[in-house]
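Annex B. Sample input.
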Amino acid sequence: MIEEAPVSTHDVIIFDTHPVQYRAPIYAGLYERVGDRFEVVYASDMSVRGYRDEGFAARIEWDTPLVAGYPHRFLPGLDTGHGFRKHRRDGVRAVIAERRPKAVIVHGTHFEYYLAAMFFARLVGAKVWLRAETQDGVFRRSWLKDMLRTVALRGLYSFLDRAFYFGELNRRHLLRMGVAEGKLRPTLFSVSDPVKAMSHAQKAERRARLRQRLGIADTTTAIAFVGKFIVQKNPGALLRAIRQTSPGALGDAMLLWVGSGPLRDELRAQAEAVERDHAIPSQFVGFVNQRELPDYFLAADVMVLPSVSETWGLVVNEALQAGCRVAMTDAVGSHPDFGPLFGVEVVPARDDHALAAAIERLAPMARDFDWAARHMETYSTEAAVDTLAREIEQL
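Annex B, continued. Sample output.
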């Protein structure tokens, strides 16, 4: 039984599909700022109950609080639909009729749950606000699909009174779909930053402790892949790139694999060949939950994300928060936001030679925990909360 926070009359109802580990801190921070002027309404409790994630090929139970510290409720009939109706509209109309909000926030237009919230909000005269990661820059579609998508989204977006964008590609998408620039507000993609409150000495101590446990020498450059071992994230590109690096270019280096998934056995076999032929070993540590993950970013020196299709790439945020250098492809949605940073390399997707050259450039750089800290303040929970709170306060 999931305990729900007490509710009262709210100015804003936020419709979300299920509790998400990087949005929950925003809701908790928003409650500290505006109190119960908002409520989050979920269509599913699957992430609270735990679920099997096929991408990780494992059952996932998040070890960080997902529904603590903010008003929320779960609608009835959870997890009973599929596809467009995966998150059903059951209860949406009743919630809006009961609360009569001044505005609703939806996180997309791809489920009937969100469309119902937009429609019923309009019936009671509420404003419709969108906060979705949708963009056009890293996905390929046929001209017909793109045309139909454009027509549909232009129509849906015409209902919007406000759109909160996650990053540069998301902003461009909204403008291309006809949303006026005056309706746009930045709530840039953020994840909690657990290392922000640590001193330099604490970060160094945690880095050293984990590297000692993993058997990584102080002088070794740890090149990490963090995430699901799936085709979309293309983890094998890291091994192919290592094969193309110049002899001795990486010095004393090793590969740190944090995650799991259906490609695990294939990657292990390829990693053994790379170690045999190029003397660069790999260590696979398996799935690591949220509370322990920051230590792995502190322990790493370079983080590589060679995805062929990625809406944003939240591990890039986490890596930069810990001061890792980052190599990623232009198929990662955050590349326009982070690519200009001197410690970030962006290469064409599926170009293993370019990835190898990028890793060669990043590997010798000195380890600095805080080099990206100022830039990441814009991509923080606090910044997102501030924008949302100001909009609610102005209602």
